[in-house]
Each structure stands twice: as C-alpha cells, then as structure tokens.
Amino acid sequence: MLRRPVLVAGFEGWNDAGDAASDAATWLSQRYGGARFAWIDPEEHFDFQTRRPEVEMADGITRTIKWPANECFAARIESADRDLVVLRGVEPSYRWKSFCGAVLTVAAETGCEMVVTLGALLADVPHTRPTTITGAATDSELIERLGLTRSRYEGPTGIVGVLHDTCRERGVASASLWAPVPHYVAAPPNPVATRALLERFGQLVGVPLELEELGELAAAWRDRVDEVVAGDEEVSAYVRKLEEQAEEAELQVVDESQIPSGDALAAELERFLRDQPDDS
User: Fold this and answer.
1) pLDDT tens-digit profile of 12-70?
2) Sign of the CA dihedral with 248 first, then 251, 256, and 259 last
3) Which distant-in-sequence residues (6+ apart) come within 8 Å of 175 by Cβ?
4) What are phi and psi of 177, to 5 degrees?
5) Which of 15, 27, 90, 216 has its CA 20 to 30 A from that of 118?
6) Which value, in Å, is the radius of gyration of the alpha carbons in the chain?
7) Quick one: DSSP state of residue 100?
8) What's the CA dihedral at 253, 177, 124, 235 to 10 degrees?
9) Is 258 within the bounds of a domain?
10) What is the rounded CA–CA span in Å between residue 174 and residue 148?
11) For residue 137, is it within any domain?
C-alpha cells in the first residue's frame, strides 16, 4: 500500500537534454528499490524504424530483444511520509492522447496526489553557474503553494508538455520542472542538471533525497568541463560572455523586484488621500 504517492515521470527523447530528466527518473527508481508493477505496450505507441528494438545477449548464448519501454516503479522512501510512483520511459511516436490517458489511469489507481513531469532543454547558460530550475503548475493555488510560475511558453512541445496539459484538462494536480543544459556541453550525462532536478523535486513534494553521491559526480563533471574549456580560447571567451549575460539577468531581476506592484501603488495612494486635510 503506497502512502500519499506522487507520480514523477521522466522520458528519453526531445525533452531530455543531456539525459538529465530520464537519468533523474532512473536514479529515483534505482536508489529507492523501485518495483516494476505496470508498463505501457510499446506496440501501440512506437515507430520501430525510428526507435528500433535492440538485441542483447542474456547469458552469453541466448539473444533477447529489448523493446522501447515505458515502465512504472513503486518506490518506498522510509525517511518520508509519502511514496513515489516513478514512470521511466521513452517519448512515444504515436497516440500521445491515449498514452497520457494510460499514465493518468496508473496515477488514479495508485491514489497519486499529484503528477510531476521532469524535463531538460538546451540553453545559453554557463556551466560555471548554479543550475536554475524553472517550473509550472496547473492551477493558481498550486502555483502559489509550490512557489512556481504559470508557463508562458509558446511553440513545439513534447510528451512532457502534453502529459502536463492532459492533467490540467482532467483536473489532476500537476507540476512540471525543467533544467537548462549548456548547449556547448550537451553530451550526456549531465549530473549537475540531474541533481538540480532531483533537489527541486524533493523540495516540491516534501521528500528528503540522499543526493550526496550525485553531488560528488556533479563536482567531478564540472572539473572536467573546466579543464576542457580552459584548453580552448574560443570556448573560454564564449563562456565568459555567457557569465556576463547571467550577471546582467540577475541584476535585472533584483531591480525589477524593487519596483512596487500596481496594488501596492494603489494602496499607497489611498493612504495618502486619507491622510490629507478635509479641505485639500
């Protein structure tokens, strides 16, 4: 019996720069001994000419076929008062609406209180700065409670965006977390982005995650990238430019935070008028 579970989903494919999102889902299922209990039939949702199955040797003699899989794992976290349903898989090729319907059926039958999708995108960000996770939620109350924002993105989307929108249509509480990955070091893995996603996810759902080992991998990854960048003057100059842009963006956020809101200005005006003498 799962305790107040949350379904968290990470998919390989278009929404998974540096494999950060799918690696986060894999880490959760493996770290907490997730037991597979449900899966979605790949026959209904994949073009096997673009996402081909793979042949593997099972015992050095027997050859088996490994098909693209979307599997659900039940993970119990003893240090928390809730459990996880982890959906780990591959972005499907066909029938996205029925695919999302199947995911929400699993969420409903396991009593999940919320659905959280993980994504990662290539961005003009320097690897030397902390990874800033952006997020969105389905309704205003959830946005305020979780400290997220309502997404204003317009353009192409992937299965993560469609699943998040399907939750909205069906009245299922959901949130979507995204990590930016430096486009000049896009090759997977990216333990920095993976750790950042997991840390924000743990904060969002109130689950303490043991990320120390992943933090060590992230530090080693940064050291390796620093070494490579230092050996290329052109790349070093580009990273310095990105750092300057990041600093300017941070200053702009601080400046904008000092500007009073319309409500604050209106309240101040009303107070000023009340304080005036009657004959003013």
Assistant:
1) 999 999 999 999 999 999 999 999 999 999 999 999 999 999 998 877 777 889 899 99
2) negative
3) 114, 115, 116, 117, 135, 136, 137, 138, 142, 146, 148, 204
4) -115, 135
5) 216
6) 22
7) H
8) 120
9) no
10) 11
11) yes
Is 112 within a domain? yes
* Closest residue by Cα to residue 129 from 8, 251, 247: 247
Nearest to 91 by CA among 56, 113, 117, 55: 117
Please state the pTM of the whole predicted model.
0.85
Report the CATH number that the domain containing residue 91 is assigned in CATH: 3.40.50.10900
Domain count, the chain: 1
Q: Give, in order, the Cα–Cα distances in Å from 49 to each of 42, 54, 63, 92.
A: 13, 12, 20, 13
Q: How far is CA 75 from CA 6, 65, 101, in A?
A: 10, 27, 22
Domain that holds residue 21: 6-230
Among candidate residues 197, 210, 172, the one with its CA nearest the CA of residue 80? 210
Cα gap 194→119, rounded to integer Å: 10
Residue 122 to residue 112: CA distance in whole angstroms: 31
Of 157, 22, 32, nearest in space to 87 by CA: 22
How far is residue 257 from each of residues 135, 205, 207, 252, 260, measured CA to CA in Å?
A: 19, 27, 30, 9, 8
**What pLDDT score was predicted for residue 254?**
45
List the one residue out of 103, 106, 143, 107 whose CA is nearest residue 6: 107
Kindly give, in sequence order, each residue whose CB lies less than 8 Å from that of residue 15, ignoring residues fewer than 6 positions away: 21, 91, 119, 120, 121, 158, 159, 160, 161
Low-confidence residues of the chain: pLDDT under 50? 254-259, 261-262, 265, 269, 280
Q: Tokens 């949702």 label which residue?
A: 45
Q: Write down the H helix ranges in the chain.
A: 20-31, 96-109, 140-146, 159-169, 191-205, 212-230, 233-257, 262-274
**What integer pLDDT is reported at residue 33 of this predicted model?**
93
Determine contact, residues 10/116, Cβ cutoff 8 Å: no
Quick check: is 246 in a domain?
no
